[in-house]
Amino acid sequence: FAELIFEDAHLSKGKIDHILRIWAAKHVADGHAEYGAIYSNYAELLETIDNIEYGPLAWRTFTVRYGGPVDANSPAWKRKVFYVHARNPLHVAEALASSPDFKDRFDVAPFEEYTAPGCRIVSNLMSGRWAYLQADKISEDPATHGAMLIPIILGADKTTVSVTTGNQEFHPLYMSLGNIHNDMRRAHRKSVVPIAFLAIPKAQHEWENDEEFRVFKKQIYHSSLVRILEPLRPGMSTPHVLRCPDGHYRRAIFELGPFIADYPEQVFLSGVVSGWCPRCHAVPEAEFVKGPPRFREHDDALQDTYVAQDLWDVFGINNDVQPFTTFFPRADIHELLTPDLLHQLIKGTFKDHIVAWVVEYVKITADTEREANRILDDIDHRLAAVPSFPGLRRFPQGRNFKQWTGNDSKALMKAPIVGYVPDKMIQCIAALLDFCYLARRSAHDTYSLRAMDEFLEKFHQLRTVFEEVGICPTGFALPRQHALVHYVRSIQLFGSPNGLCSSITESRHISAVKKPWRDSSRHNPLGQIIRKNTHLSKVAAARVEFGRRNMFYGDVLTHAYLTAGLDAPEDKEDDQDECFRELAEAMASDDTPADALVTLSERPAYVSNIHDAATNLAQPELLQLIRRFLYIVQHPDVQPDDILDDDLVWLWSGEKVCVHYSAAAVFHAPSEHAGPYGMHRELIRSTPSWYGAEPRYDTVLVCTNQDAVGMDGLVVARVRSFFTFTYDGTVHRCALVEWFILDDEAPDEVTGMWIVRPENNQHGERVTDVIAVGSI
Asked: Source organism's superkingdom (predicted)?
């Protein structure tokens, strides 16, 4: 009840009190006034949550202020005291490391994994080279030899909760442990914890661009991080005993690990000049190629040798900033900044650069502004013609080309612009997208990393087309695009970037900042947000502990029936969830992936006989197709072309069929969108009326050869109906599909995509078939 009302429904104090009074009134009306509601009021609910003995401890507050000379004429920001609210990161690390929720998803030591000689796989952080090297350093000290490495992952990002109600900006700092697997961080299983709200200094307009104020903002940022992380410092040189998710106690050494941040935050963190790379000494010129790496000792040597102006102009170093990592052993901020799929690839290189450049090309090459708009409208119309596919957003009325941001829609970019831009431009986009798809993988091996290097090199060669047509006459001095040259090395060091992406902190903003802000009174909301986070943490910790005790099997009603000694009603949803859990466990434990699970909707849309269903579906050959399907089931080795009508089984057209409008597909495809164990769940629709409007018939991939690679073992089909029927005591779950065939034996040379077209018979009619749902 507390989780539903307090966390999920986000009801106000008054509404919760009202619900509890209605509950109590029902007992009174039934003659059971002595029972009352589960809580007497909102205050008792909060008191119950506060009494939960699990979860992180309380927050603390400290102040920071300008430390130079101040007089009556000094600007207000020099006289103001700024507040920083923080949790003890040591206690947070202990809570994360001991959480049973991460059992079997927590690495206690770095490791190397190979699929073949010379072919190494990297996925989670502890499988990367960085963790291995840090563990080696720890082992060199007799005092820390044999201790478990605990990398501290940090992430910071400003977020605005409202642009209309004044200064409603917050700067949360998040923490996780590098031992926790990436899929746990992506699934937000409370593995990413807000540990601080940093101060956001503000000044009057006349001082906003003042150099002294800008330096002060960076200095207060780093000094706050040092103060917040101070409790971890002793554990960086002396082992600290931690309880791990498996229940064992181990000696641990803390280590500052990767820092998740977008480019503006990286500039703050690394102390480089904006526009320069925080990881290497590449000069931001036309090509902006990879340069010698930055590292802590080299920065110190440069600052001891050159004056501040030379450091700024020649090396891109802001001499006024001392990174917080300087105060902690073995930490180098230049090394710890990781790839950011969201801001560098999706929003940066793809949306802000490629999409904007294509739109600009269309506008400068069109004869008139009206013609340019017509072309962009036609691109939208081409988008509208894309068949629907589960998990891929499509836009029946098209979509403003300039607004493309989603991971699931960028794949649509190449085909609609064919004919409107040069082929070289499309090939450039194809190379970038191929790089994106590889970068988003949950596991990388030597060959995929080599392919990333090849696609990136191809992208760099082809992007010159934007110079040639006048879009980028000065070259590509773009920090976010330059960052791609560091991806392969970063993956080798830290594993897959989808476990260290700013999309994780962006999503965490919703539960840690934005929703608590909406639940607040909006007046001085930070204190209310912090209290809400404390209560949410306690509820989450209790949920993990109760789950460890197997207290969440079924639901509260089932538990009540069992407690009363009564038979609980059957819960089909629980049965389905159990199937999903079994499939996820199979994916996690087996060397080879388990078969995907496709289940039809719980209830059919309607029940009829085969003859009437054929009429409703406008498929007069439905009975014959079902007979062919049954023959193939009985003779799996037969070739479809060898089947004769006389050999088909007899089936009555009055046989009952149950028609369904949807099916759920659960399958294994690790990416940053996947849940735990790399699982996805998508709905496949096949309905004659989608939201009361036009029909929706999703396209699917049908497996024809489990051992083949790519399209050699797949066929594209459009689902016209899902249905079940019973024959000879066996229930058959089927799909009526229309086939597509490949237009060529290889992908298109320009887009790199396979082209398919509808398969028609000699009369020009669509070729249809009945297949088993399990083949999707």
From this structure: Eukaryota
Higher pLDDT, 370 or 707: 370
Q: What is the maximum alpha-carbon separation in the chain?
A: 103
User: Residue 197 in 3-state DSSP?
Assistant: strand
CA distance 158 to 169: 7
pLDDT at 589: 45
Neighbours of 169 (CB within 10 A): 13
Count of H helices and E strands in the chain? 26, 23
Q: What is the pLDDT of residue 459?
A: 96
Q: Which helix (H) or strand (E) holds 717?
A: strand 714-727
Q: What is the pLDDT of residue 570?
A: 61
In terms of C-beta density within 10 A (0-12 exposed, 13-18 middle, 19 or more buried), how is residue 634 classed?
Answer: exposed
Give the strand pairing for 696-697 and 699-703.
Answer: unpaired
> CA dihedral in degrees (463, 465, 468, 470; nearest 10)?
-80
Distance from C-alpha of 207 to C-alpha of 217, rounded to nearest angstrom: 12
* Dihedral of alpha carbons 26, 28, 31, 33, sign: positive
Assess whether pLDDT exceeds 60 at residue 587. no
pLDDT confidence of 138, banded at 50, 70, 90? very high
Can you tell me the distance from the alpha carbon of 771 to that of 725, in angstroms, rounded to the nearest whole number?
13
Q: How far apart are CA 201 and CA 195, in angstroms?
A: 19
pLDDT confidence of residue 382: 81
Q: How many CB atoms lie within 10 A of CB 774?
A: 14
Burial category of 594 from C-beta neighbours within 10 Å (exposed 0-12, middle 13-18, buried 19 and up) = middle
Mean of pLDDT values over 461-484: 93
The token pair that represents 329 in the structure block: 């052993």
Among left, alpha and beta (phi > 0; psi -120 to 50; other), residue 677 is: left
Are the C-beta atoms of 171 and 225 separated by less than 8 Å? no
Quick check: helix, strand or coil at residue 686?
Answer: strand
User: Are the CB atoms for 250 and 145 separated by under 8 Å?
Assistant: no
Query: Measuring CA to CA, how many Å separate 604 from each of 488, 601, 722, 733?
Result: 49, 7, 9, 12
Contact 240, 234 (CB under 8 A): yes
* C-alpha gyration radius of the chain: 30
Q: Is residue 721 exposed (0-12), middle (13-18) or buried (19+ Cβ within 10 Å)?
A: buried
Among left, alpha and beta (phi > 0; psi -120 to 50; other), residue 478 is: beta
Q: Which amino acid is at 620?
A: P
Burial class (CB in 10 A: 0-12, 13-18, 19+), 491: buried
Asked if the model's pLDDT at residue 406 lies above 60, the reply is: no
What per-residue confidence (pLDDT) applies to 340? 92
The separation between CA 597 and the C-alpha centre of its own chain, rounded to angstroms, equals: 22
The pLDDT score that the predictor gives to residue 553 is 65
Q: Can you give the residue ranges of every domain in the chain?
A: 2-51+542-563, 60-261+501-538, 342-498, 595-775
At 223 the three-state DSSP class reads: helix
pLDDT surpasses 60 at 586: no
What percentage of the chain has pLDDT greater than the value 70? Answer: 90
Q: How far is CA 745 from CA 252, 748, 749, in A?
A: 56, 9, 12
Q: Where are the alpha helices (DSSP H) in 80-234?
A: 89-98, 129-140, 182-186, 211-229
* Cα distance between residue 107 and residue 104, in whole Å: 8
List the beta bridge partners of residue 630.
Answer: none
Burial tier of 123 (Cβ tally within 10 Å: 0-12, 13-18, 19+): buried
CA–CA dist 124, 677 (Å, integer)? 12
**Which whole number is the average pLDDT over 66-76?**
88
Asked which of 237-241, 437-441, 673-677, 703-707 is least confident by mean pLDDT, the reply is 673-677
Average pLDDT value for the chain? 87
Cβ neighbours around 112 below 10 Å, total: 11
Instruction: List strand residue ranges (DSSP E) for 672-743, in order.
Output: 679-687, 696-697, 699-703, 714-727, 730-742
